[in-house]
Amino acid sequence: MKTKRFSPVMAIVLAIILLVTPLLTSCGPKVADTTKVLKIGMMTPSTGPVPEKGIPGQHGIQDAMEYINNELGGAGGYKIQVSWRDSAYDPAKVATIIQDFINEGDILFTTHSSSEMKMAQGTANEAGFPGLATFISTMNLHPAKHIYGPTPDYGDDFVALIKYYMDNIWTGTGKPKVALHLLSGSVGAGTLDGANAMAEELGVEIVATEYHAINTTSEIESLTRIKAKSPDVLIISGVPASTAIIIENAKTLGMYPGTTIMCASASFTKSLVDTVTAQSGADAIEGVYGVFHTVSWEDDVPGIAKAKEYCMKNHPSDYGNMDYLSTWATCLTIREILETAVKNVGYDVLSKGNAAAWKAVEEQGIQKLKGYKVEGLQGGTITYTAGDNRLDKYLRMYKVSGGKITPLGKWEEAPLIKYTQYGDK
Amino acid sequence: MDLPSGTRNYNYAEDMAIFRTKTHWFLLFALLVILFTAPLWFGNYWLSIANLIGITIIAVTGLNILTGYCGQLSIGHAGFMAVGAYTSVILTTRFNLPFLVGLICAGVMAGIIGMIFGIPSLRVKGFYLAISTIAAQAIIIWVIRGWTSVTGGYTGLEASPASIGNLILKSQTSEFFLILIITIIAIFAAKNLVRTRVGRAFVAIRDNDLAAEVMGINLFRYKLTAFFIGCFFAGIAGALLAHISRLASPEYFSFTNSVLYIGMIIIGGLGTTIGPIFGVIFFQLLNVLVTKLSPALQSAFPHLPGGFTSGIAPMLFGLAIILFLIFEPRGIAHRWQLFKSAYRFWPFSY
């Protein structure tokens, strides 16, 4: 009897799924037919294993696009229409989302993470569909094809961290011993690429390389192995949640203070500080170094004022979050790309949303970028250099001080590294 | 086979036929016409969804043979897919072997690895076997990540597009036809397998392995055969996934996927050929629906916690599994069977 009562409910649920799904898709493109807009696709991992990065990133996109369309008049006089999707950090989903963006007639796309881009870049590069990843790894950019980084990559993070260490912290003789704790995936792989390519030149010795999973709950075992090698520096390249675990475990094992802890850009954000502080107290993260590609929330630059205004209005809990700021800056870069493309080829070419439009965005937009200052949010200027798909090449060091991420010194340029394993010549 | 009122079989061939009546043949023809003309009215996006559905159906059909028919619970199926993916990519890119050779080798290699991990199935079953297959998943992915010189480690391996002779299958449409044909072959093979001596042995082992052994069924041989066949399907699916994604990466073959595949056969209907098809379509369309709906919901309810709307998919899928386990443990396939019975006896279905 129970199954009979359940039958209509199940039939209705199935019918709704089967009927509503195609209807939703068919409803999408009609908006673009009646309004002159520039259509782009953006995805963030708002669910899945890294919502602490994806959600602020998603909010940054929403708020930046509101600002761009309402106050800056869009790009080249046309509003930017964003198709936002949650990738859930799921490779299969990323692959279908890319097809969705292509199908909708989007003229470029972005991912929040390098892992999402890794899954998307095969299709995108083959089709010539230009894409940007807010956080980008070496494997996304090398060899240079149709994927671009609005910021330096994780290999550059390693170089910036070690340069700072050598210039400002290291007082010993010989080569300092460096241990790497890497997130398994494109984030950790990027930092490892940088280490393999540049460690010798920078004068450091890599004494340990350990990996952690994105959902790790304890790294006591791997840190015990690292501790046995007595490293001078521990470089962590992970996401905020995994990095927090490693920092807490390092303190538990008595490695910190003592060993200098430095974090790559993917993890160095407010949620890292908040998580460690909540679980182990503020002392556990005080003095940890990190590298990042945007200014801090306390910097006095034009872009911060607007970001603060929109953040406090729409998503106050994201105040101080670097992922929010990163996607905000990426949105401004996208606006500049589209404005340049509109100026060079006109709206009609871009509005077609086809291969010709992608080519125009890439060749007459991205590759024509020169000297764009991103309202002061990034260290260098957004400039394209042939053969180097990093549009900005500057990083800045930060330190957790008084529970806040505080900038240290000036911006450092990240030179282009050739990665032969990816086919660089 | 259930037949409409007034239809009966007069010989063995009729009794064994999968498509028996004119209506069956008409529906088959209509379905094939719809499927093979799908690229005419589907955009690339829906074709990419269809491709993913096809690949998942192949993998889940293999799991259904292993778990649904033979009763050997495997929670490491994504790991066996990974074996197939890497085998095919390595053979086609490093050894320049044709795609079809790579594809077959992918299935065979995954089958062999599956048999190795299936050896404990003679001594352990149920919960304990599930744990040993989880170990298979962990070990396979660990080897892939660590054996950098062969597998590319965390970076993965770039895969070439599928090709047959000089024909390179790069577009969504050509990939769709390839996957569709292989999916049809896989379903047809699975349907026929369970009607053979081997298939009946699988069912006997599932229902009571002691009784099956007393009847003269060699448990070790048939259990390993089930592992080989189930993992062969997984290997084929993994190879197809790698070639259409242009990448073999451990991230495609997570433990979560292995668990989801179990969920798909539960929802679709364990131990039926059509069950995996229903289960996969249900899950993938639910996923698409939530992906499409979440931006609209986010705009409509801006004060919902971030990620709430897009987190609905896993919640709904989990809820669906629970509801099916409580109310319809035989899955959608059973409902389909009831519908067909009602149709056959209409207007006297009561």
Write up what this structure looks like.
The complex is a heterodimer of chains A (425) and B (350). By secondary structure, chain A is α/β, with parallel strands linked by helices. In chain A, 47% of the residues lie in helices and 16% in strands. In chain A, the strands form two sheets. Chain A has a seven-stranded mixed sheet, sandwiched between helices. A five-stranded parallel sheet of chain A has the order 2-1-3-4-5, with helices on both faces. Chain B has a single domain (45-345), classed as ABC transporter involved in vitamin B12 uptake, BtuC (Orthogonal Bundle), CATH 1.10.3470. Chain B is built from 16 helices and four strands. Chain B has helices spanning 12-16, 22-36, 38-41, 44-69, 77-93, 99-118, 127-146, 148-151, 172-193, 197-207, 209-214, 219-245, 255-268, 275-300, 312-327, 331-345, and strands at 157-158, 162-164, 167-169, 247-248. In chain B, a hairpin with a 2-residue loop joins strand 2 and strand 3 (167-169). In chain B, helix 4 packs across helix 13 and helix 13 crosses helix 15 (312-327). Chain B is globular. Chain B starts with 11 loop residues before the first helix and ends in a 5-residue tail after the last helix. At the A-B interface, helix 1, helix 3, strand 2, helix 4 and helix 5 of A face helix 4, helix 12, helix 14, helix 15 and helix 16 of B.
